[in-house]
Amino acid sequence: MNGKKDTQMSKKKGKIWWFIHVTFRNFILDIRINYYRKIFGMSIGQGVKISLNAKLDKTNPRGIHIGDDTYIAFDAAILAHDMSRLKHEDTYIGARCFIGARSIILPGVKIGDQVVIAAGSVVTKDIPSNTLAAGNPAKVIKPIKTGKLGIIER
Q1: Is residue 10's pLDDT more than 90?
Q2: 113 exposure class (CB count in 10 Å sphere: 0-12, 13-18, 19+)
Q3: What is the chain's percent helix, strand, coil content, to nearest 5?
Q4: Mean pLDDT in the chain?
Q5: Of 112, 49, 54, 53, whose CA–CA distance to 79 is shortest?
Q6: Cis before residue 137, ω within 30 degrees of 0?
Q7: Which helix (H) or strand (E) holds 133?
Q8: Plot region of 84 (φ>0 → left; ψ -120 to 50 → alpha; else → beta)
Q9: Distances in Å between the alpha carbon of 107 and those of 65, 88, 136?
């Protein structure tokens, strides 16, 4: 009997720790997004989640535009300037998109709504809405439909 109580207590502590961890992490993410909006002037929609390791271009921060309910995974880079050509261009990411880990979105690119960019992709050209794109350079793979945070609906 004692073993069962210990297991239940351990599960309860685990759930409490998980809740605190997730709540604290979301709080930090929200502070960071507000910092991007207010200090850098980036256009970031409601319900957006940006990994702490994602990189958003601070050389041309007003050139970053992200739609509602979009998720940007770790080590993704979103650029709005090109130093080698001395260009500053607006980069748009639509609503309900998912930008995979270690993806690079180059300056001037427009990504439509409900788009998933696969991990490690390099987006050099515009991507139409409701598509999955992957590769280097990224190419449209197939049509899809996504929900909140770019999660693919089946």
Answers
A1: no
A2: middle
A3: 30, 30, 40
A4: 93
A5: 54
A6: yes
A7: strand 131-135
A8: alpha
A9: 11, 7, 15
User: Cα separation of 67 and 105, whole Å?
Assistant: 15
Q: Which ranges in the chain belong to alpha helices (H)?
A: 2-38
Q: Which amino acid is at 122?
A: V
Q: Which residue has the higher pLDDT, 65 or 7?
A: 65
pLDDT digits (tens, 9 = 90+) for 108-119: 999 999 999 999
Q: What is the pLDDT of residues 80-110, one digit of tens each?
A: 999 999 999 999 999 999 999 999 999 999 9
Q: Give the type of residue at 138.
A: A
- Residue partners of 147: CB distance under 8 A and separation at least 6: 96, 153
| Distance set, CA 92 to CA 12, 102, 111 (Å) | 43, 18, 6
pLDDT tens sequence across 53-75: 999 999 999 999 999 999 999 99
Residue 98 · residue 151 · CB < 8 Å:
yes
H-run or E-run covering 66: strand 64-66
Q: Count the residues in the chain.
A: 154
* Rounded Cα gap, residues 58 and 86, in angstroms: 15
